[in-house]
Amino acid sequence: MIQGNPDLIAEIRDRFAHVDSCPFQGPRVFFENAGGALTLKSVVETSARFAAIPDNQGRDNPAAHALVATIDKAKADMAVLMNAAGGQFIAGESGTELLFRMIRTACVNAPKGSKVIGSSIEHPASRSAARRWAGIAGLDYVNVRHDDATGTVSAEAYAAQVTPDVAVATILHASPVTGMGMDVAAISKAIRAVAPNCVIIVDGIQHAAHGQIDLDAYGVDGYAISPYKAFSRHGFGIAWLSDKLSAMHHDMLIDAPATGWEFGTRDTGAYATMSDVVAYFDWLGGRVSDETAPRARIEAAGRAIHDYESHLTDALIHGTGNLPGLGDMEHVTILAGEDNPAREGLVSIVVDGMASPEVVTILNEQGIRTHTRKADHYSGNVLNPLGLPDCIRISLCHYNTEQEVAQLLAVVNELGKA
Q1: Spatial separation of the C-alpha atoms in residues 276 and 279, rounded to whole Å
Q2: pTM for this one?
Q3: What is the radius of gyration, based on Cα positions, of the chain?
Q4: Can you tell me the distance from the alpha carbon of 220 to that of 338, in angstroms, rounded to the nearest whole number?
Q5: CATH code of 306's domain
Q6: I need a surface site. Which of 144, 188, 316, 406 has the fewest CB within 10 A?
């Protein structure tokens, strides 16, 4: 386990760039992980190394062969990380762009008069794509309401509205506003019990950094992540497609391979950084367990990350040392409840009598990086039903420390005395 092991925490933090200081601001605590996690130092090194290589894949020369082998290794590594026995991994512009492509393909291939189902908790990356392409394809869109009190949507809520003519479904794995995770396997099972041939596509962007993805257990057809939120870098997205989705008629070049989804030459360095991410989870799993098999070590890392992040959010909510937690502060309201078992390393709050941007500025002046979520096209689906114009998002990751939590609590506690 990570908690109570300061040497391991130091080792973890040493593997990330800018873990305790910003190159523009100086020393700071990074609680903006949902907006983009810290980057592994190995990712920075790998990116620089491959950026200098002039060769392209698919040529008959040693460099091209090495690039293809690098991509093949990254895809195999990601299959272990996400536990995917079949299907294929592709790289694209971003996680959002890949969700749009997968959802578009599923919708235009759906039988006429069928339905698309999704939930109101979803990020617009999937929700916008589903509603847009349902309209273009002449499909009805079915909206499953999420629970405002818990910030989640359940399998039972999907089951109440799914019908045999549902051809496409979208699921959010974790919310970047409430911080709550959804039971993807249970939701998928509920959908397939009624519409077994439904194409199910998952937005895994917010969830990926927490180290627990099991595609074989989910029974879905598409899953997208944004690597910059999972310890890699900006500039690309990764998607997994089932064999069924891969084979559907999709945008492609004339006479190109039937299951080819990538356009143009991919950045080998981007793929290579995913091997760095997998190697990190593998390393961490070896430090927190005696497992020897790569997948078993990755699963151990995921459990350790979940447990430690739960410890940090508990400290944030209930206090640490002699500092009261956010839940003990009368001037603070926590979204989705204080003790919510679905929470994944994120606590969103509002401070009585203060606009959230003002609080974020005060925290930033004290060297604590957080973020404002506003009731706009990104977060209005969650905040508007709560009657909130905005909130402060405090997002943690397993390289954060209890001391950093204490720094934030001290500042927020003083806001109540103003």
Answers
A1: 5
A2: 0.95
A3: 22
A4: 31
A5: 3.90.1150.10
A6: 406
